[in-house]
Amino acid sequence: MFDDRELAVYKLRLEALRQELARLKQTGDEAAGIVELDQTSVGRLSRMDALQGQAMSQERGRRREIELRRIAAALQRIEQGDYGYCVSCDEPIARKRLDFDPAAAQCIACAEKAEQDRR
Q1: Cα–Cα distance measured from residue 98 to residue 4, given in angstroms and rounded to the nearest whole number
Q2: Can you name the residues that pair with 85 across neighbouring β-strands?
């Protein structure tokens, strides 16, 4: 489906995304740290804000981990020669879809079906 030059471009994009997510993970880990619950050092609303900030940071971290796994899987598909083919139906994934999301593992039809099945 893709020649070596095109695969190299997708691989570079995926590796750049992985590096950026790893960098964001380092800064996000600090924000997801333990929240001080001592009422003598901070007020109730400040603690609530801190807890909410911590929860949002933890969710961002969870989503980063999912994206890192998707990127690793896409890089593995490149190495195995399966990149660009849907993991569900083995049909080619539209080039525009991969240009938008180089870690996409499914064609549009299978991704839509999977989304409907989750509902």
Answers
A1: 16
A2: 92
